Amino acid sequence: VQLQASGGGLVQAGGSLRLSCAASGSRFSFSTMGWYRQFPGKQRELVANITPGGFISYADSVRGRFTISRENTKKTAYLQMNSLKPEDTAVYYCNMKGGSWRYWGQGALVTVSS
Question: Of the chain's two ends, which shows fewer C-beta atoms within 10 Å, N or C?
């Protein structure tokens, strides 16, 4: 399984970006998809995740601004980020996990300028 993240970049505060995570293999539909982020010198933290059944959870810091979604037919998960703040600047990682598996994508740098 490979996870290919895309959509990072530089945006001004208040702007929007959409991250995509495209998966290979056959496990996507059975997996919980998550987005994590990592600040310099810090551990990765969960931003949002969505279960195979569509149950969604968000970190308090992004709730109401970020939206996670998935398209099983395209084996792709998304993170729509609105009202971005400089403190959202981080490397964002997508994650796929199931009963016995866990995979990480490469990071996507998101930089929010003030």
Answer: C
